[in-house]
What we know:
The protein is α+β, with helices and mostly antiparallel strands. It contains 16 helices and 22 strands. Helix 2 packs parallel to helix 7 and helix 12 (454-463) crosses helix 15. The model is unreliable at 527-534 (pLDDT under 50). The strands form 4 sheets. Strands 3, 4, 5, 6, 11, 12, 13, 14, 15 and 16 form a 10-stranded mixed sheet that branches. Strands 1, 2, 7, 8, 9, 10, 17 and 18 form an 8-stranded mixed sheet that branches. The structure holds flavin-adenine dinucleotide. Flavin-adenine dinucleotide (FAD) binds at residues 21-27, 44-47, 51-54, 56-60, 187-188, 223-225, 227, 252, 292, 337-340, 372, 374-377.
Amino acid sequence: MLRPQLLALLARPITYDVAIIGGGATGLGVALDxxxxxxxxxxxxxxxxxxxxxxxxxKLVHGGVRYLAQGNIALVREALHERTTLLHNAPxxxxxLPFVMPSYKLWEMPFYGAGLKMYDVxxxxxxxxxxxxxxxxxxLACLPTALPDGLKGGVKYWxxxxxxxxxxxxxxxxxxxxxxxxxxxxxxxxxxxxxxxxIAGLHCVDGESGQAFxxxxxxxxxxxxxxxxxxxxxxxxxxxxxxxxxxxPSQGVHIVVDRxxxxxxxxxxxPKTADGRVLFGVPWLGKVILGTTDTPRGDLxxxxxxxxxxxxxxxxxxARYLRRAPKAADVRSIWVGLRPLVRPADDDGENTKxxxxxxxxxxxxxxxxxxxxxxxxxxxxxxxxxLDQCFAGGLLPPAPGDVTGQxxxxxxxxxxxxxxPLSAPPGLHSYGSEAAAVAALPGADRLLGWGLxxxxxxxxxxNEYARTAEDVLARRSRLLFLDARLAGSLAQEVGDILxxxxxxxxxxxxxxxxxxxxxxxxxPGGGTRMGLKE
Length: 534
Ligand SMILES: Cc1cc2nc3c(=O)[nH]c(=O)nc-3n(C[C@H](O)[C@H](O)[C@H](O)COP(=O)(O)OP(=O)(O)OC[C@H]3O[C@@H](n4cnc5c(N)ncnc54)[C@H](O)[C@@H]3O)c2cc1C
């Protein structure tokens, strides 16, 4: 749907059942679930869909081996169930992936292997393959660049991986196909309370034209990720009940390097880094993602920057396991996401590793429903909980049931059993059953770079809500995340095609500046030094 049509729909004087703030995994999941139950739904996103945390995940659809180690069995069980559902409902965007944990100490294999066998038991029928103990030779066959010196063997287990931003778009489009109105670049600017102090809707503003709207809704869902507290505080002020911040943001850094550092189809899993975390090396869209970190962060920047210590930590840990250790000059892109971790009542904000990865749904006295925490993998379970809370609070008439468990997302209909893996470079196959529709557009044979064609840019503008060069290069294609320099060099070409399609300013220079930012090596102790690879 073209932008003027979207805005015309926003201007209708109707009362929605559900209005959602935030178009990340959480908000989009709620939009789809509510629309699939037959509710009228509107969702506004201040930036682009998945422009916040939801495009910056490690790309794992997982039960969470780490949560197993913490003894959080219920969370692991739920996530494993959701993993199965997602792999089934979007097989072009979420697939099984084998992981190998190389062991250099004899005790590691039985110790971690037992835990991973437990993971198999919890998965039950949802298991993707058995955990196996590997010899040193078998480990090197899976991870050809693992350090061979002192290698005792390894443990192989299965989890899933996905394309987070494209999955978010698939959720948005599937929700829209069920009647939801989803609008990016439209910020919620305030809440509307009725005379009795109950939530009655929200104010929002189109970021391009400045046009303001007031949306009436029976139920307002605050799914603004790490930014949820600003709406909770507004609600508190309006109702005379100050609230305490519930989110303790924690940043996670990823770096991307070429596949030669970790060839093959297996991911590397390091069960315990120097600071007690899990580190992954994940083959993804023709490159390798290394990460991540967990650093408490006081501010809520749209583009948080890594600390030098975080980069050094990832490079240093990788060097402990890889024959050729990547250096700062090998990094193709560095990106940072903020985890919306939920703060326990007595938390001092210092140690985010121990905070809950489970989600929280809060219904305020005025009826504002806030949902945050959790992880991408469990977006569907979170959406169900949100709707259950709306029913329990009398905000919506009950329409119970699991309506999305079998609901295939856009692009997932009628796909063959075997698809190219997500570890392979992107291409037409990334569009699933929509590949033919993309191929039929002008410019299908004109490849701009790394699996991105002119036709894909047109498709992004016509069908995937893309407005800017960043929308295309960061989230429809993932080039900014995979190779920031290449993304910057394609910005003008992509912008020209977009502008011809939409008539809007594609903001080419903003993408070029962002691509430079994604290549910046942070200076030790604070600032940044330019130029990873000249
Ligand atoms: C480093 C890292 C790695 C991770 N890895 C994984 C992983 O491998 N697997 C996994 O399952 N999970 C992972 N997660 C967790 C997962 O990414 C998050 O739980 C999830 O993306 C949160 O989604 P969200 O919708 O709540 O937040 P967001 O994606 O941030 O969405 C909130 C949205 O609200 C919008 N917004 C803010 N203010 C307004 C406003 N005023 N009006 C309208 N919109 C507004 C924002 O622009 C944003 O798009 C990871 C998280 C991080 C940080």
